[in-house]
């Protein structure tokens, strides 16, 4: 197999293309946007967070979700309008509750593998992505949530992640901008943050320099598995034949999978972010250490001196990408409440769709037809996991997965559907 098409130029597509080129493949990348990283990989929470690897498939999360549905500013919102895709996905999600423990441990392991792989790609290509290696601090205002975090930490330890419980005093030593109304926290020193858009664009430029063919502004309308390979139909191009294809099309991977004879049940789980542009006084008042407020389900990242990213919300509302003012408001209010010295005059709002599998594990591996592969469905952790899944996928394409070190984790996805 020589020439591979990669469908999508978000973080998963670009890292996949990079890893395939390392194996000696000729690569052609398609994206419907004029530039790389214009959809979910545009303005996410920024966290490279093994410490956020807990899957959501638990009764505790479901019960919390039901309570949240009664509150207008809650971090979860479900559009009750009937939709077979949404409700069947939710049933499948519930069916994976018995796998909560195993899938959380597996995600931690994958996140740990991913770090070195992603940093190596960035370093080799000289891409600056506002990488901050100051750790991630999970913060708690109630003893009950802190106790729940203690239990999750034990699972993380089984996956190989070490983090430490910190007192309110230690928390303000770690991040002096933090207020004093917390009961405690968990600090993961080895986690980090960065700008997903900058890294994806930088790597997209790098693969171009290395000789990849990159077709921007091309909507792929159809893909067809044929004898000996796959045909790609893109608007504005003649149909093109490849020895193989890797589907990395984010929330749209599901429809390409069904054209290729596979079931990849991704649901688009919408989230929002704001990027607060920091004037000089605000720069001192905003935290540098990345935070995860577990009760509000909000994450933060400092992107250089001048930008502070705050993200959250899980909205089940189909493929709608509208930026709703009533969902942005809680993010701005959270900044005003927790960091009153940060001016929120200049705030850039954004919404994106997390490509979420019901078991919350990415789908990485072969499809049913020869030459068909997937690296998609990374949900709330695509930035964190992309370095590892790109390498695993490239090994699968090259047939060298047995030799891969560390051995790929058994992603619930490695089987054809
Ligand atoms: C609010 C929010 C906060 C988040 N925070 C974090 C975080 O802190 N840490 C973390 O690890 N993850 C986070 N995530 C998740 C992470 O951003 C995603 O998992 C990741 O960006 C998904 O990347 P992707 O390449 O799979 O999808 P995308 O970036 O969406 O890329 C898919 C690409 O496929 C292209 N495409 C689709 N259909 C077609 C077609 N028909 N023809 C041509 N091209 C097509 C699209 O144009 C797009 O560029 C967050 C997500 C959200 C929404």
Main sheet: strands, sense, barrel = 9 strands, mixed
CATH class identity of the largest domain: Alpha Beta
How much is the radius of gyration in Å?
21 Å
Count of separate DSSP helical elements? 11
- Oligomeric status of the shown chains? single chain
Classify the secondary structure makeup into a structural class: alpha/beta
Layout of SSEs?
Blueprint (H helix, E strand, L loop, with lengths): L2 E5 L3 H12 L3 E5 L16 E2 L10 H10 L7 E3 L5 H12 L4 H26 L10 E5 L2 H17 L4 E3 L1 H7 L9 E5 L3 E2 L2 H14 L3 E3 L4 E7 L2 E6 L5 E3 L1 E4 L5 H7 L7 E11 L2 H6 L4 E4 L4 E6 L3 E10 L8 H14 L8 E10 L6 E4 L5 E5 L5 H17 L19
Helix pairs in contact: 1-7, 1-11, 4-5, 4-11
The structure holds flavin-adenine dinucleotide (FAD).
Report on the architecture of this protein.
The chain is an alpha/beta fold. The chain folds into two domains: 3-41 and 198-266 and 360-403, FAD/NAD(P)-binding domain; 48-192 and 267-356, D-Amino Acid Oxidase, subunit A, domain 2 (D-Amino Acid Oxidase, Chain A, domain 2). Helices cover 34% and strands 25% of the residues. The chain has eleven helices and 20 strands. The chain has helices at residues 11-22, 59-68, 84-95, 100-125, 143-159, 168-174, 196-209, 253-259, 280-285, 325-338, 382-398; strands at 3-7, 26-30, 47-48, 76-78, 136-140, 164-166, 184-188, 192-193, 213-215, 220-226, 229-234, 240-242, 244-247, 267-277, 290-293, 298-303, 307-316, 347-356, 363-366, 372-376. Strand 19 (363-366) and strand 20 (372-376) form a beta hairpin. Helix 1 (11-22) packs parallel to helix 7, helix 1 (11-22) runs parallel beside helix 11 and helix 4 packs across helix 11. The longest helix has 26 residues, at 100-125. The chain starts with a strand and ends in a 19-residue tail after the last helix.
């Amino acid at each position: 197999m020589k020439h591979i098409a990669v469908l999508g130029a978000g973080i998963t597509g670009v890292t996949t293309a990079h890893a395939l080129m390392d194996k000696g493949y000729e690569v052609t990348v398609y994206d419907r946007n004029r530039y790389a990283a214009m959809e979910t990989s545009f303005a996410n929470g920024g966290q490279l967070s093994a410490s956020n690897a807990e899957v959501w498939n638990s009764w505790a999360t479901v019960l919390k979700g039901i309570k949240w549905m009664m509150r207008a500013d809650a971090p979860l919102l479900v559009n009750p309008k009937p939709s077979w895709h949404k409700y069947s996905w939710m049933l499948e999600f519930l069916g994976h509750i018995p796998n909560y423990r195993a899938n959380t441990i597996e995600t931690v392991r994958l996140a740990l593998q991913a770090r070195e792989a992603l940093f190596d790609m960035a370093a080799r290509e000289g891409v600056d992505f506002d990488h901050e290696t100051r750790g991630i601090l999970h913060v708690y205002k109630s003893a009950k949530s802190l106790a729940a975090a203690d239990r999750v930490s034990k699972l993380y330890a089984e996956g190989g992640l070490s983090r430490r419980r910190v007192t309110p005093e230690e928390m303000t030593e770690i991040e002096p901008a933090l207020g004093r109304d917390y009961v405690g926290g968990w600090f993961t020193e080895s986690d980090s943050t960065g700008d997903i858009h900058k890294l994806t664009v930088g790597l997209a430029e790098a693969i171009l320099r290395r000789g990849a063919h990159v077709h921007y502004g091309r909507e792929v309308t159809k893909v067809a598995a044929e004898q000996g390979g796959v045909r790609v139909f893109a608007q504005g191009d003649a149909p093109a034949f490849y020895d193989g294809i890797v589907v990395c099309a984010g929330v749209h991977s599901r429809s390409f999978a069904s054209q290729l004879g596979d079931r990849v049940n991704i649901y688009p789980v919408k989230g929002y972010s704001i990027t607060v542009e920091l004037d000089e006084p605000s720069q001192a008042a905003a935290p540098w250490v990345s935070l995860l407020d577990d009760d509000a389900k909000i994450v933060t990242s400092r992107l250089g001196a001048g930008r502070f990213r705050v993200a959250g919300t899980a909205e089940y509302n189909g493929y709608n990408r509208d930026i709703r003012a009533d969902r942005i408001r809680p993010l701005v209010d959270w900044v005003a409440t927790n960091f009153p010295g940060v001016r929120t005059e200049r705030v850039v709002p954004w919404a994106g769709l997390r490509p979420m599998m019901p078991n919350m594990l990415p789908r990485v591996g072969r499809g049913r037809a020869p030459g068909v592969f997937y690296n998609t469905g990374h949900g709330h952790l695509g930035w964190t996991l992309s370095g590892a899944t790109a390498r695993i996928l490239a090994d699968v394409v090259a047939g060298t997965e047995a030799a891969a070190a560390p051995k790929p984790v058994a992603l619930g996805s490695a089987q054809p559907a």
